[in-house]
């Protein structure tokens, strides 16, 4: 699932999160750069979809809004969208203190999940939460 792809009407962007496949130091640096670039692009795509959904459905708030945003990214599968938002809440909104899930949590979860699926080493070379907090305003 990609926010940028959904925001662009299904056209996949040129931002890649794939690894260069090298264990050398420059491979690690390139991977870190790609992971950060991917995270920034996905945050911008998520905000674009957020704006579209809010314009079309101004009555939606919170979890219902997040379900609709994710549903548009996963191809109309509401059950999958609900599951993704639940996982984001479990991952980001439960520690250190329980709170309502936020849009930032959902975006962070989606980006981390995608990067982990693409990572050949099982690790991410970008501080996704920091990037999300830079791009997505407080209160989202």
Characterization of the model:
The chain has 140 residues and is mainly alpha-helical. The protein has one domain. The protein has 6 helices and no strands. The protein has helices spanning 3-7, 25-56, 62-73, 78-92, 103-118, 128-135. Helix 2 packs across helix 3 (62-73) and helix 5 (103-118) crosses helix 6. The protein is globular, with a radius of gyration of 15 Å. The two termini are 20 Å apart. The mean pLDDT is 83.
Give descriptors for this structure:
140 residues; globular; 6 helices; 0% strand; mainly alpha
Distance between the termini: 20 Å
The run of helices and strands is: HHHHHH
Question: How many E-type strands?
Answer: 0
Largest sheet: none
Quick structural gist:
This protein is an all-alpha fold and 140 residues long. The protein has helices at 3-7, 25-56, 62-73, 78-92, 103-118, 128-135.
Q: Mind sketching the topology for me?
A:
Layout: H1 3-7, H2 25-56, H3 62-73, H4 78-92, H5 103-118, H6 128-135
